[in-house]
Amino acid sequence: MTLSEKAYSAIRRDIIQGVLAADQPLRMADLSARYDMGFSPLREALSRLQVERLVIAEALRGFRVAPLSIDEMQDAISTRILVESDALRLSIRHGNDDWSAGIVAALYALKLQVDRAASGAVGVWEIESRHYAFHRALLAACPSPWRLEFFERLYAATERYRIPILVASRTPSGSGRDIQGEHSALADSVLARDAETAVRLLADHYNKTALMIRDRMDAAA
Amino acid sequence: MTLSEKAYSAIRRDIIQGVLAADQPLRMADLSARYDMGFSPLREALSRLQVERLVIAEALRGFRVAPLSIDEMQDAISTRILVESDALRLSIRHGNDDWSAGIVAALYALKLQVDRAASGAVGVWEIESRHYAFHRALLAACPSPWRLEFFERLYAATERYRIPILVASRTPSGSGRDIQGEHSALADSVLARDAETAVRLLADHYNKTALMIRDRMDAAA
DNA sequence: GCAAGCAGGATTTTCGAAAATAATGGAATT
DNA sequence: AATTCCATTATTTTCGAAAATCCTGCTTGC
């Protein structure tokens, strides 16, 4: 693995997790010290992240972490619903037994980690990566690379907004919302190949998240 | 404008136009000579194009132009229909008079250039940029940056497949297809705010293009 | 005859410094 | 007091060379 790729993963994760705060300027000298490498691999990583809209670049004025806004969040979530609804229909149409088994496995692994988190010391990132794996498993049989690409992009964009909520309320159920239940119901309808119900549950799931994020951002402001 | 940005635009255009052929390896030394700059800005440009799927990177083995395939083309077009249909509905809902005027202007400018091309010496790129401008104008009132972003990405991806057709048959009507007529009808229904018709015409327009490309690629193979 | 191993060359990747540009702060002027 | 100008500093951007890695074709050993 090259340094460029390491820099890309590391900076990407740090932005999504909020370690590098929104709007924060990214000075080459600082990054070089923090990630222990020269300018070249860092600039390459930042160039890639710029296309993904996780960083903003201004010519001769360097890079900074992309800002967060309610409008952008709402846009990302509504676009997610558009793209993932279609991808989920395709996935349900094309999925085989391996696909079904993958969903069951991912849901179970997520539940294990959430339970573990409720009772103590598990990092947010460990839950988050299984949450991603679950949603990715639902779409695993979608035969369209472009739709999956857009899913990845939008997942990363919305993850930035969800992380602060997870950090605040370590027990996801503490928000008066049964997220694991939503995931189960969604998985059930997908496994039953009931595309219409699945798409409806998926949209509900995301819209509820959008509402929670919006409340929190309003409260913060 | 920095060299990085120049490199990005130049390489991007050369890939889309086919000046840099599909699957062709992109050697740093060659690129450095061709674009008259050092490695750093070139690598940054290539990193960005990698995210856009116009180039493929393999660690320690450099970059190459992304390959073309019928499957990828079909996928890009079907995803375009998904995204642009939705974006077009939103645009129709939100568009004001400036938006309408922009569509009329773009359609007219495109027609001028197509007529000019039929009677002689106008480059493919001059038509192509107005074709892009027309489709962009239709979506100009769409308030969703993410949908517009995906439109840009998919437009670039499909443009690579369309260019060889345009080069072969310099008069677009030579293909037994009245493309200008399709554009007019599409613009009319959009200006009349008839979203259902517009979305249908848009999908037809793209599916016809997909068929033409498919025929040509089958013939070539 | 054929596979494995190894030099030599080609190529990518990375670094550190130089060049170019922007930001800062103070002095001079209105 | 406010503004413009200039010098200084801070920062980004770019280059050219060094380091690391991969590819090629030969040799060696079986």
**CATH T-level fold name of the largest domain in chain A:** Four Helix Bundle (Hemerythrin (Met), subunit A)
What's the architecture of the largest domain in chain A in CATH terms?
Up-down Bundle
| Share in helix of chain A | over 70%
Uncertain regions spanning at least 5 consecutive residues of chain A: none
In total, the number of strands of chain A is 3
Along the chain, the helix and strand elements of chain A come as: HEHHEEHHHHHH
Largest interface: A-B, 33 and 33 residues
Oligomer: homodimer
**Which class of the largest domain in chain A in CATH terms?**
Mainly Alpha
Beta-strand content of chain A: under 5%
Whole-Å distance between the termini of chain A?
A: 42 Å
- From the spread of the alpha carbons, the general shape of chain A counts as globular
How would a textbook summarize the main sheet of chain A? 3 strands, antiparallel
Structure notes:
- 2 copies of one chain form a homodimer.
- Chain A has 2 domains: 3-65, Winged helix-like DNA-binding domain superfamily/Winged helix DNA-binding domain (Arc Repressor Mutant, subunit A); 70-220, GntR ligand-binding domain-like (Four Helix Bundle (Hemerythrin (Met), subunit A), Up-down Bundle), CATH 1.20.120.
- Helices cover 73% and strands 5% of the residues of chain A.
- Chain A has helices at 3-17, 28-35, 39-51, 70-94, 97-118, 124-138, 145-168, 179-191, 195-220; strands spanning 25-26, 55-58, 62-65.
- In chain A, helix 4 (70-94) packs antiparallel against helix 9 (195-220), helix 5 (97-118) runs antiparallel to helix 6 (124-138) and helix 5 runs antiparallel to helix 8 (179-191).
- Chain B binds a DNA duplex (30 and 30 nucleotides) through residues 2-4, 27-29, 37-41, 43, 59-63.
